Amino acid sequence: MDIEFIDLSPENLAQEQLCCIVRTKKPHPGVEAKRRWLASRLQEGHVFRKLPGNGCAFVEYAPLETAWVPVEGKNYLYIYCLWVQGEPKGHGYGRRLMESCLADARAKGKSGVCMLGAQKQKAWLSDQSFARKFGFQTVDTTADGYELLALSFDGSLPRFRENAKRQSIDRQELTIYYDDQCPFIPDRVEKLRRFCAETEIPAEFIHVQSLEQAKNLPCVFNNWAVFYGGKFVTVNQLDAAGVEKLLKKK
Fold this sequence. Notes:
- Helices cover 25% and strands 26% of the residues.
- It is α+β, with helices and mostly antiparallel strands and 250 residues long.
């Protein structure tokens, strides 16, 4: 297996396929929003490493200090997403991508690597059982079952910020925090706005647009977070059916 991965850079960002969405060659609002977001993040040491072409196999990580998540720690990398699907599955790309991230962390003198997990695997989070095979362990938790997983090289550990453990807000209506890190989000937000308006469901959509805002969120967050009845519900991206199910359940 001699294929070489590609790291996105200011020079190739406009041309390279973003692996999450490979089904259209037409301009896509989510992809373009992600490109704009990445254009600033790459200057901060953010890494998006992928297969050449359209194959969906990639890892995305950043220095924890500039990662848009309410997690703190010194000298760590934070993995937003490690994903392999479709034809590339079964070729060892996930292992190689994880190994490349860990090697990068060691080469840069980092204290370790961390990522968001949960006691029960969430659909929109990277496979935590896969991460544990590399030595990742639970180093912090929230009362509702979310976990911070970390592989420490020097014994130091990251942790959730205290605001992230609050998992509650004053608003009782459906409230969704989101940023531009995932190409699926703009379309999902637009459809949910329309659905909530048509069905007269009170809803608030809060666009996270800065590192400070992300670090101070009242919940765990990887790019999306849902509240209802003042309580945190999930990091999973919901569609209209998911909202209806949530409201019926509550």
